[in-house]
TrEMBL record:
Residues shown, of full length: 3 to 532 of 646
Keyword Lipoprotein: no
One term under GO cellular component: bacterial nucleoid
GO biological process: DNA recombination; DNA repair; DNA replication; SOS response
Catalytic activity entry: Couples ATP hydrolysis with the unwinding of duplex DNA by translocating in the 3'-5' direction
Key words, A-Z: ATP-binding, DNA damage, DNA recombination, DNA repair, DNA-binding, Helicase, Hydrolase, Isomerase, Metal-binding, Nucleotide-binding, Zinc
Name of the molecule in the record: DNA helicase RecQ
EC number(s) reported in the record: 5.6.2.4
Organism of this sequence: Streptomyces xanthii
Stated family: Belongs to the helicase family. RecQ subfamily.
DNA-binding is among the record's keywords: yes
Gene Ontology molecular functions: 3'-5' DNA helicase activity; ATP binding; DNA binding; four-way junction helicase activity; hydrolase activity; metal ion binding
Annotated region (Disordered), positions in chain: 517-530
Cofactor: Mg(2+); Zn(2+)
Ranges for domain Helicase ATP-binding: 33-201
């Protein structure tokens, strides 16, 4: 006798073969699909390229009704729908790029039960008209793509996502699946909470990309460094070079072309025709390099990208991971190479300080930058650092990143770490107040700033015990402690707090090894108090 579970499994597998032409499920796909087809809610954390789409597309095909996919990537909807239609899946989308008639047609198809999948932009679900429409049709599953957009602490926050909890309230019997590639543990919790999915089962795939070699070099003459890297290791390979500005995208593409490496630019300032032409050349040709701003890459699925290079520092570890993750989807050896320098830090701090957004936004951007800097400065295995950042188990060393291959010079920072940690302890325990890195460093340096005087911090026994290091060096130490999880940043004020690991440093059970700050990696002098 066939159990219900076996029936679900075999129907899912049959759909995989028949519709998508694949032999087998990958990783967690089968478990996710079985759970959702059976009516359960799911939160799926899978890296980019991991195969999230099938996790909702197959339930939408197997269950009766239309699968509603909420996605913020309006620019990709047309492509996604075209790709599905080419496979014979009845798919449609509704977003702001359509005119009234197009929208009416899709809505009519939905109401007639003629759609397997309907893609919607999140802002549409704010409209009563959309909710009314949905309640007049039959829905098989709600898929909430890029679910980290609901996290206010995250780097992609979209207010429209906050309204999505309404789906669970209005359609309690329709399973929901939230998917994301970028979620730290905190973001993951926030997704569950804000989308109102307390009973969802969580599926967490490994974020490790063992075939990608991570390397971060001090920036001197970036274009030249890039050229010699490519000549030495990636002659004739397809790859992506990310730059921050359109100007440097253009300049880099031109420089590579002049030096015999075929490269084209891609950024939002180019007209749509040129962009589409460059993108399709990249997908079609074997050894083309695309120099691009981060506008390039979303939804690009080219398996044989052999390298991703960053000439400028990404704004966050999430961004870095996502961009480097476009390399080596075929599983073959690939390189994630980045040139990183002092100027990057100065520039990004400036951008944050001058940028729009309120104080909370600035603090968030700044803490994302700190995590990125920590990855750049770590003396630890880069892969271990990345995996820890995403809340995943990590090996001590991976053997396939620059720090594992050529261990950096380190110094014994145990005493420095103890000085910082004991200052945090004293502020927290004796004064019941928490402070950011700035105040703690001022105390260690024995600076009588207004804020130090105001809180009587010059009376603390730790006042002035850290004069052997300069302010910039202390900042480096703090960032590295953050990176190693020996201290943590809390709340919207960026206050420093102890972690479970801090005790072992204070109790001298463990040594703290810090990476020697090479010149380009040194922190900028942001403020001079006098
Ligand atoms: P994500 O949304 O997680 O970034 P996608 O769903 O776009 O990933 O899948 C990435 C690529 O992997 C796509 O080309 C997809 O067709 C392919 N893929 C996904 N699942 C399988 C599978 N089980 N077998 C073969 N290829 C798969
Ligand atoms: Zn490593």
């Amino acid at each position: 006798e066939v159990t219900e579970r076996e029936a679900v499994q075999s129907e899912a597998l049959a759909t995989l073969h028949r519709v998508f032409g694949y032999d087998a499920f990958r990783g967690e796909q089968e478990a996710v699909i079985e759970h959702v087809v059976s009516g359960g809610d799911a939160v799926v954390l899978m890296p980019t390229g991991g195969g999230k789409s099938l996790c909702y597309q197959i339930p939408a095909l197997v269950r009766p009704g239309t699968g509603i996919v909420v996605s913020p990537l309006i620019a990709l909807m047309q492509d996604q729908v075209d790709a599905l239609r080419a496979l014979g899946v009845r798919a449609g989308f509704v977003n702001s790029t359509q005119d009234f008639d197009e929208r009416r047609t899709v809505e009519a198809e939905f109401l007639a039960g003629e759609l397997d999948l309907l893609y919607l932009a999140p802002e549409r679900l704010r409209l009563d008209a959309t909710l009314d429409l949905l309640s007049r049709g039959k829905i098989s599953v709600f898929a909430i793509d890029e679910a980290h957009c609901v996290a206010q602490w995250g780097h992609d926050f979209r207010p429209d996502y906050l309204t999505l909890s309404v789906l669970g309230q209005r359609w309690p019997d329709v399973p929901r699946i939230a998917l994301t590639a970028t979620a730290t543990h905190a973001t993951h919790q926030e997704i569950t909470q804000r989308l109102g999915m307390p009973d969802a089962r969580h599926f967490v795939a490994s974020f490790d990309r063992p075939n990608i070699q991570y390397r971060i070099v001090p920036k001197a003459d970036p274009k030249k460094q890039l050229l010699s890297f490519l000549r030495a290791e990636h002659e004739g390979d397809a790859g992506i070079v990310y730059c921050l500005s359109r100007k440097s995208v253009e300049a880099t593409a031109e420089y590579l072309s002049k030096n015999g490496i075929e490269a084209v630019p891609y950024h939002a300032g180019l007209d749509a025709g040129t962009r589409a032409a460059h993108q399709s050349r990249f997908l079609r040709e074997e050894g083309l390099v695309v120099c691009a701003t981060i506008a390039f890459g979303m939804g690009i699925d080219k398996p044989d990208v052999r390298f991703v290079a960053h000439l400028d520092l990404p704004k966050s570890v999430e961004g870095y991971y996502q961009e480097t993750g476009r390399a080596g989807r075929d599983g073959l050896a690939s390189t994630a190479w980045m040139a990183y320098g002092l100027q990057d830090v100065v520039q990004q701090r400036k951008l944050i300080n001058m940028g729009e957004g309120d104080e909370a936004f600035r603090r968030r951007a700044s803490s994302h930058l700190d995590s990125m800097l920590a990855l750049c400065e770590t003396a630890r295995c880069r892969r271990a650092q990345l995996l820890t950042y995403f809340g995943q188990e990590a090996p001590e060393s991976c053997g396939n990143c620059d720090t594992c291959l050529t261990p950096p010079e380190t110094w014994d920072g145990t005493v420095a770490a103890q000085k910082i940690l004991s200052t945090v302890v004293r502020l927290d325990r004796e004064r019941r107040q928490k402070f950011g890195a700035g105040q703690i460093i001022d105390i260690l340096l024995g600076k009588r700033t207004a804020k130090v005087i105001q809180f009587d911090h010059d009376q603390l026994s730790v006042f002035g015990i850290g004069e052997e290091l300069a302010e910039a060096e202390w900042r480096g130490v703090v960032r590295q402690l953050l990176a190693q999880g020996l201290i943590a940043v809390e709340g919207e004020y960026g206050t420093l707090v102890l972690t479970e690991e801090s005790g072992s440093v204070l109790g001298r059970q463990r040594e703290v090894l810090l990476r020697k700050e090479t010149k380009p990696a040194a922190a900028p002098r942001a403020r001079r108090s006098r």
